[in-house]
Amino acid sequence: MTTDDAIGQYHAILARDGLAAETAGQLTDELDRRKLLFGNRPLCSVLRPRFLSANRARLLRTQSFLVSTALQRMQEVAIHNSEILKQFRLLPWEEKMLPIPSRIRHPSPVSRLDGFFTAEGRLRFTEMNAQSPAGAGFSDLIAEVFLNLPAMQEFIRKIPVRTLTARRGTLAALREAWHDWSGSDSDPPQIAIVDWTDVPTRIDFQFLREEFEREGIPTRILSPLDLEFDGEQLSAAGEPIHLVYRRVLMVELIDRCGYEHPLIQAARAESVCIVNPISCRLPGKKASFAFLNDEANAHYFTGEEQRAIREHIPWTRFLEERQTIYSGQVIDLIPYVLKHKERFVLKPNDAYGGRSVVLGWTISDSAWQTAVTAGLAVPTIVQERIELPVEPYPVLVQGSLEFEPRWEDTCPFVGPDHEMFGCLTRLSTEPLVNVSAGGGAMVPTFIIDD
Length: 450
Description:
This protein is α+β, with helices and mostly antiparallel strands and 450 residues long. It contains 16 helices and 25 strands. Helix 3 crosses helix 14 and helix 6 (136-147) packs across helix 9. It is globular and about 65 Å long. Mean pLDDT is 93; it is low at 435-439.
């Protein structure tokens, strides 16, 4: 069965008398009861999950593995080579953090690749979230909600589906990191999930804590302001902390608390296991895809990794005065980008959450000229536009079932073994697909077996 067939059957079930309204009512009640919110917004506003074919799921698994291994290889090549590190345009605070030791083998044990199955059906990854990827708890809980909706119950009687459990994969990644750091996994660590108290993803942390504690691992949700370090042990309110699942962004921690924050002191002293490590900056910078994609760096990667990079990463370069190769031809980068705004996206090297991303085809020539000029002053990448997929999703509008187009992304979670352990799907009415950028939503991803 194709995903189009599955979508058609689901929509036909939903269109039966009263079922859409019943499904919408139960969805609203469950989102509210389980506090599945991003800030104050319900996490989901549509009545259908995302269906992913088994073939596409296999492709996603194999190619995210190769791109993840290439990113780790990149980190290993660059970390001790000052000339290569220049390609990443490190900020002053990053230069201070990069030498902090970590006993964990993988630079980013819990990561998320952000990508799309394009309108032509190609898998394309646009960046890696290697600092503190969100959504593992949300994606599992919203899958549970959808599995119990009336329309979904009717659907799975005919067409079986399976899910990917991101919370379990997150815990497995933390356990492996703890084993690397401590040399033993006999005693479970005391875990602290650390971020600010006002972040909109705080509910996500609660879902993760519930999973961890079901597995017998004591877990607290703490603010960076709760942490203390006495020179030997990181703690909060007198209770020791062995492993920090770091969801706080380092740039925010340093801006608010400085370089001598207890978490940074404990990291320097190798007194606590931190996931992801403070030194994990390279894979998470937008420059990482420029490094992978640049023809000058191809020799660092295996033939299989090079093929994955060519096939699944859009053409990406640092925005600078240079010559490079585009579509098999040598170009002068800046004049070419200025002339062909409909082909390109600009992304600040160190932005996150969709901030300051400029889509060339959505603005005027003069605005594009201004954006390119600004991008030359602040480290920025230019990336080739991909044709984003648009899918029809059912919504209830004043009691009437309607089908509205949504842009749809595909974001696999990747663990320290480079294996995919979950998949986040976000929807948007705007071509910038990002929940934190506003206007977005999340739906569960269900795999339709062959």
